[in-house]
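Aim 2 progress update. The chain analyzed this quarter is reproduced below.
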Amino acid sequence: MWVDQASYLKRTATAMTITSSGYVHALGAAEADGAIAIWFHTHPGVDSTPSPSRHDRIVDDQISGLFRLRSGSETYGTLIIAPAGAGYAFTGSFENETGEKAPLDRIWSVGEAWRLRQSFSATYAPADPIFDRNVRAFGPDIQRILGELTIAIVGSGGTGSAVAEQLVRLGVRKLILIDADTLSETNVTRVYGSTPTDVGVPKAQVLAAHLRQIAPDLSCTAIQGMVTLETVARTLRAADVVFGCTDDNAGRLVLSRLSTYYLTPVIDVGVLLSSDAAGMLTGIDGRITTMTPGSACLVCRDRIDLARAAAELKTPEERKRLADEGYAPALGQTEPAVVAYTTAAAAAAVNELLDRLIGFGPPDRPTETLLRLHEREISTNHASPRERHYCHSSQGKWGAGDATPFLEQLWPAD
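Predicted structure tokens:
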């Protein structure tokens, strides 16, 4: 929120003075939004650094009390920006009423391009030599960012396990794996890292054990549970990016809302194999939908069967009754799946992450990629949010964060 021009008392090349009328309205907006107000200091000189100056500290001392009072928050945030090449460098901190400070150590920007910047004071170890071929392709900065991102994968089956293995081999070292099911005999043909001896073991645990064999330094949280349960869904708040590799519509509803309420990029992946009455394969379709602020959610794109999602949220007894009565005939059916096609869709999804980080694709990035493998065709598209839907900017839900109830939706009992 910019300071009004009339609120500047002094503006020179090296200093400025601003009246409280220039920012008090922003503090009221922060209070109404339940947000923490952050004061931006700028060090615009070509050779400047974002290290705190004596004047910065004086200003922080003068306004921190007013910021807390008018924003209704116990915390005062400060951010210092300076130019750095084509981008910027920063330092920052959050200070409570007792004067204790916690550093603001990273800024994660999500739009058409995704950028992770770490504090000017951060130190980095050189890239592990095992990633030499990666570094030759996209440089050491991207390699470092891959190692810093926390990525959640919802679904540890054929698609999710393929996504996870590719991410770990690329250098991702912080993962959250979520899957409610245990490994079945038919899963072994698609789930990376699984063997017949793993049958009956939770899928997320099987995948986590496999990934740790590849990368012993991997930090991996494996959760056996459904993302349609609030306690499980809340763990996704810790993720910078989420891959949706679940085949249930109710789970996709949760991920769709998460992308809006927490500004968390969600890459949703789907694979559909179609056959004729004789059982002959007629269609091999993959879909990679990327949800970021300004793009349509899965509901707006009609990628979710709302009736089926509602049925999936019911108890097993209620599901059986609906199926018996013909209201939910698809529930309980086993869909065809083949490792070659789930892997192809997973690779396209991981490519979407890399393009958003690196920028090798067109500047006007599509928000959906469609694979028609049976026709050897790839197409892309854009879609905008429907007006008055929660993902539309006019509804004020972008970055709304924690709400009551969580994500402003109803949840079944755990």
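The mean pLDDT is 92. The chain has two domains: 5-104, 129-405. These observations will guide the mutagenesis experiments scheduled for the next reporting period.
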